[in-house]
Write a structure and sequence with these properties.
Elements: E1 8-12, E2 18-22, E3 32-33, H1 43-51, H2 62-65, H3 71-87, H4 93-107, H5 118-126, H6 132-151, H7 178-187, H8 193-204, H9 208-211, E4 219-222, E5 225-230, E6 240-243, H10 246-253, H11 274-287, H12 295-308, H13 313-320, H14 334-345
Antiparallel strand pairs: 1-2, 2-3, 4-5, 5-6
Length: 355
């Protein structure tokens, strides 16, 4: 495909490579060479600079500034790889943010070489003894980065593998009980953001990141019944289709200000991230005298409540958007999700104190 831009010249070198050059405006005898071609996202910027008579410097990434084959070079090279995966839709920005925070510790180590000695990594793990979960996450993040480097022939072995774990995963978030819901809804009245947030969590079984996107745009009609239909943003999640229950509809319609999402932040805009939403729900829990509870615990509590009522594992999968049952590894087909979820949610009886 031919590209017609004033002053732009395409030259074929003896080696067969293509070189792009630009004549500055009003200076026909001058030719400025660009460092990339039209397929590069930086091409237009370089072309405009050359037309002004400026020699454009190519855009540089963090790894370009680091000493080659240093730990700073490797960390930034790996993070740039993750950024490209995000742009391709195969990785989550949340993952990149977490990796950046964890791997930043390597940049502060006195060892500047790319391959950090295992004893140094163990010393860094020991320094995080007060936060064992964070220490475990750090070592695992380093190990994953080195695995990535080994596959690309940058290093020969992984010093982060074989380090003893210092963290044993606990039971996780505390599940909500009926008495907790009574107390929360008694404190946060209908129409408040706090009331709406917990109502959505409770009557959908959604994750806190779903709470930042769910709104009237996800409402639909299935088999003549009002429903909610969405695909959770968490990677690997299956589409969820559940009834729009009366308590949820009442709660979401009670707010004075309505917007793109059920739960609105400042200025009537959706919350910007799952972290900010999670922190706000935590604050609302504390205000109601429930500082030990969180948004994630609502999902766990709903699972336990439905299980107590005899709801099958596959129905729980349908409500919670799981793709696979861990015990049997049997997939719940998409066409079955609606019927299973409808049957499960209709088993619930709603105390008037929650409305």
């Amino acid at each position: 495909m031919k590209i017609h831009m004033k002053g732009l010249m395409r030259e074929v070198l003896p080696s067969g490579a293509i070189r792009w050059r630009v004549r500055p405006e009003g200076r026909r005898t001058v030719k400025i060479t660009l460092s990339c071609g039209p397929d590069d996202e930086d091409f237009h910027r370089q072309y405009l600079a050359a037309r002004r008579g400026e020699k454009p410097e190519p855009l540089r990434q963090a790894s370009d500034y680091a000493k080659p084959r240093s730990i700073a070079w490797l960390v930034n090279l790996y993070l740039e790889h993750l950024q490209k995966r995000i742009e391709a839709g195969t990785a989550s920005p949340k993952t990149l943010k977490k990796k950046k925070n964890l791997l930043a510790r390597l940049l502060a180590t006195p060892d500047k070489v790319m391959l950090i000695p295992q004893e140094r990594l163990i010393a860094m793990q020991d320094a995080m003894a007060a936060t064992p979960a964070q220490a475990h996450a750090f070592v695992e993040a380093v190990a994953v980065m080195y695995d990535w480097a080994i596959k690309r022939k940058l290093i020969g072995h992984n010093p982060a593998r074989g380090i003893d774990k210092v963290y044993v995963k606990g039971p996780g978030a505390t599940p909500w009980k009926r008495a907790d819901l009574d107390r929360y809804f008694a404190h946060h009245k209908k129409g408040s953001k706090a009331h709406i947030a917990l109502s959505v969590l409770l009557w959908t079984g959604c994750r806190v990141e779903d709470l930042t996107i769910l709104g009237r745009g996800h409402e639909c009609v299935i088999d003549g019944y009002e429903a909610l239909r969405w695909t959770p943003p968490k990677k690997g999640s299956s589409e969820v289709m559940i009834p729009l229950l009366a308590p949820l509809k009442q709660a979401t319609r009670a707010a004075t200000v309505q917007g793109a999402t059920y739960v609105l932040g400042r200025g009537g805009k959706p919350f910007s991230s799952a972290d900010s939403m999670s922190a706000m729900v935590k604050r609302w829990c504390a205000d109601a005298g429930l500082p030990h509870l969180s948004a994630h615990g609502v999902r766990k509590g709903l699972s336990e409540l439905l299980a107590e009522l005899g709801v099958s594992q596959y129905a729980l999968m349908s409500i919670l958007g799981h793709s696979e049952a861990k015990t049997s590894e049997v997939y719940t087909r998409r066409v079955e999700r609606w019927k299973l979820a409808s049957d499960a949610m209709n088993r619930l009886t709603v105390p008037h104190t929650w409305l």
